[in-house]
């Protein structure tokens, strides 16, 4: 009897030790799985931050990533982007997920209301899951101490409480809802375009209060550039682009029609070139699914027009070496000027900016040697540039309003371009 009790106690102790070992192993396995899950969430959040192009606005040229300090020129004054690193004093390291959500999707940070230069009206479409994953990634950004004065707007726009009224008028907090009549691919593209990629923030005309008009994706002027028409209009928009043309452009920064310039170059280099093929194809499918927008093309100026005659002569001298005399350019390198929607834009701001200051072509993994356009502001007078652009905009299959010397002078001053070296 005694021997049986001893055997039972020994067996019980062995089972208890085995159970403890099993429990420890289960605990370690659970911890490893949790760590793996968090790692996957951080990686998803990193991808979402790329899709949202957070780096472009929250990083100054040559500065620390996400440390803020970039001045954004708005019609109401300068807004400087904030530090979103994990620094607890000058960044957002002390924030909670709820505070991050409030800022990103509702436009209110712990320090007060945000201005829609931070595209929270678009980010309101982000799902709860994506918002949480984005926060997991943002929390991993190394802290950078950089105190930023974000609000440099003049009175009365510097009163943040005014945004309460703006939000009531223009902020749609409705979460993204898939359209059951559209494919899963088109809905994925809509989610990216309307939300994370916030294309409408730049490409939709604003009213006098800075709210979106009904001219969705139909183009507008912004910071000395013209964000072009993204509708399916064949004259000024994407009507003649195929889905493959869109994917190629977003991946490489160039295609058979054009090459990116200005802020769009940054968007492609920092954001869209890093998206998956599936997401790029979804974005393209969404844009091509939009209803066609009919807009009558104007009649081109006659070749006998005085500006056209001067512009044709100046074009051969100044431009034909790269764009060739016909304006055909070099495919996927130097944009064609023939029947080009960007050339036909109602506003010539982008063309003026490129001619006056030059531009560097996008440098992407798919297009590592982007061609550059030299500046002509130092070389050509306002009337010469006006004549050249008027000629380009009314020949080679194009038709658009003439550019006047006063337009060039205005742009030259606004963007700080050089004056001609001789007068």
Automatic annotation (TrEMBL):
Pfam family, one: Cytochrom_C
Cellular localisation: Cell membrane
Segments traversing the membrane: none
Signal peptide from the UniProt entry: 1-34
Main location: membrane
Keywords for the protein's UniProt record, in alphabetical order: Cell membrane, Electron transport, Heme, Iron, Membrane, Metal-binding, Repeat, Respiratory chain, Signal, Transport
Cofactor(s) listed: heme c
Residue stretches making up the Cytochrome c domain: 40-142, 184-291, 306-396
Name under which the protein is recorded: Cytochrome c
Taxon lineage: Bacteria, Pseudomonadati, Pseudomonadota, Alphaproteobacteria, Acetobacterales
């Amino acid at each position: 009897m005694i021997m049986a009790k001893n055997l039972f106690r020994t067996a019980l102790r062995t089972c208890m030790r085995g159970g403890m070992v099993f429990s420890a192993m289960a605990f370690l396995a659970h911890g490893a799985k949790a760590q793996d899950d968090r790692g996957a969430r951080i990686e998803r959040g990193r991808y979402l931050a790329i899709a949202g192009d957070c780096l472009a606005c929250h990083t100054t040229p040559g500065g620390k990533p996400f440390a803020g300090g970039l001045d954004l020129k708005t019609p109401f004054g300068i807004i400087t982007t904030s530090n979103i690193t994990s620094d607890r004093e000058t960044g957002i390291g002390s924030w909670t997920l709820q505070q991050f959500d409030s800022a990103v999707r509702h436009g209110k940070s712990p320090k007060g209301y945000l201005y829609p230069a931070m595209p929270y009206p678009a980010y309101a479409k982000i799902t709860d899951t994506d918002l949480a994953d984005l926060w997991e990634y943002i929390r991993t950004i190394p802290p950078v101490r950089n105190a930023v004065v974000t609000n440099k707007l003049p009175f009365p726009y510097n009163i943040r409480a005014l945004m309460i009224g703006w939000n009531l008028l223009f902020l749609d907090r409705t979460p993204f809802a898939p359209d059951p009549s559209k494919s899963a691919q088109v809905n994925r593209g809509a989610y990216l375009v309307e939300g994370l990629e916030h294309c409408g923030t730049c490409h939709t005309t604003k009213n006098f209060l800075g709210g979106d008009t009904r001219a969705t994706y139909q183009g507008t002027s912004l910071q000395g550039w013209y964000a072009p028409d993204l509708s399916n209009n064949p004259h000024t928009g994407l009507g003649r682009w195929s889905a493959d043309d869109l994917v190629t452009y977003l991946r490489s920064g160039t295609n058979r029609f054009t090459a990116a310039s200005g802020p769009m170059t940054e968007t492609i280099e920092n954001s869209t070139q890093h998206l998956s093929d599936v997401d790029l194809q979804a974005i393209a499918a969404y844009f091509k699914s939009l209803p066609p927008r009919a807009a009558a093309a104007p009649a081109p100026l006659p070749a006998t027009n005085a500006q056209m005659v001067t512009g044709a002569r100046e074009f051969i001298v100044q431009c034909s070496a790269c764009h060739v005399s016909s304006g055909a350019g070099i495919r996927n390198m130097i944009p064609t000027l023939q029947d080009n929607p960007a050339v036909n834009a109602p506003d010539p701001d982008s063309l003026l900016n490129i001619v006056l200051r030059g531009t560097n072509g996008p440098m992407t993994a798919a297009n590592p040697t982007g061609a550059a356009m030299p500046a002509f502001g130092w070389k050509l007078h306002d009337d010469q540039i006006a004549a050249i652009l008027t000629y380009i905009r009314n020949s080679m299959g194009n038709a658009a309003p003439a550019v006047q010397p006063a337009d060039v002078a205005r742009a030259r001053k606004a963007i700080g371009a050089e004056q001609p070296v001789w007068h």
